[in-house]
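We modelled the chain as a single entity of 206 amino acids. Its sequence is:
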Amino acid sequence: MELLETSALLRMFALYTHVLACFAAAAGVVLGDIAIFMPKRVDRLLLQKSTRLVSLALLALWISGLGLIAIDTGFDPAVMLDKPKLLAKLSVVVVLTLNGWALHRWAFPLLASPQEEPQKAAGLPALLGGISSASWLFAAFLGVAKPLAIVLLYPGFMGLYGASLLVAIGVALSLGRQRLARQLLVSDDDTIYSVLQDEPRGIQAT
């Protein structure tokens, strides 16, 4: 009985941490969107803060999520394979993690300064941004999709995820890319504007 009570307390703590990490990630994503679509330029300082918040939230989601899996399944492959929603969630979080790495590695450097070919430069950030948006929304959907698990199973969940990716990427490339391109136009004013500063500091973009 004592073991069960300890396990229940650990699960409650892991679940609470998981929920808080979800809220933190959502806040970071919203701040990132605000930073990217500022009126004058991409807000580099706010973007750095928001990406750090999302990275920490994603790490917390991994740790708390693995803790929940350990408590619920003991990492028994047979038990895990019988949980389609869990497998779908793991798949989506892997995509989120790899996509986040790609954003940091290739997309955000393109947003850091004006580009000579803004339309071309905006393509990759728009594509990865679409994947990110669809993945976060689908991960949230999976959190409440337990009643559908017995109907959709793993292939059904991943089919829905694939469809949501196609829609999000289509919107991002057709609409978001144009907006991003305008943010990346070269102009005489290279001052970095940020909501985290009282006024522009005259810092030159690199």
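As a brief sanity check on the tokenised model: The first helix runs from residue 2 to 36. Residues 72 and 132 are 28 Å apart (CA to CA).
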